[in-house]
Amino acid sequence: MMWMAVLTMVWACSSDDNGGTATFSSGLKPSWTVDWQYNDPAPSWKEPESTLFECSMDVLVELDDELLPYSTDADRMAMFINSECRGVSMRNVMANGRVYFLLHVKGTSEEAGSVLHLRYYCDSVNHLFMEDEIVHFTPNNVMDDTFQFVFSPIERSSKYPFYTQLVVMLPENLPFKLTEDDMMAVFVGDECRGICKANADMYPGWRGTVYKRWAEEEVEVRFYSADKKGIYNLSPKVVLNDYMKTYNASF
Length: 251
What we know:
1 helix; mainly beta
């Protein structure tokens, strides 16, 4: 779960003063995306027997823009207390194209305050996404903002159980003119692990989530310049071993 507040928070993070150079290769604008395809089997989640629980609550979950293109009617979302499934939902597509899951979560009065764990299975990419401690079991809750969430892949998934928020700072003097068609992405080998975007009105630098297989990984930043019509591979590579990281780019 990625809260909007994270996008505007103070980025107190470690920094890499790279002092390196970049290699350039001409080419068309790339179509960089994170490959969410994986091999998780479809889960067999089932609604719990209602007669076993005297309490319930409702949680409304919306898919974020990154997962929305992969959503199909075969998707499922479930809520758990410990490892026991307490609610299952199929997707609901609104007139505006947004996708929501309404979870009717069951429990006992003794379980009030228990931590709930969210699981989302995206069938088109065979991938299980997870969010722990999303909210606490609150019997007979009122459906207000406290129980309405936007779900993103940022927290954890079976393919990428770790992530780092990366900030890439560009130097003042660039060998090209910045345009709206420029792109920046982060790679491990040839595998795209995240897209960085610029929003000068909200914060300095280019920012994005880098998805990782391990807690510490070495990545390479690549920048596509529409002005120069080619890709800069930035050097040196950067080791991502923190929740947040700043990388000072050189060209």
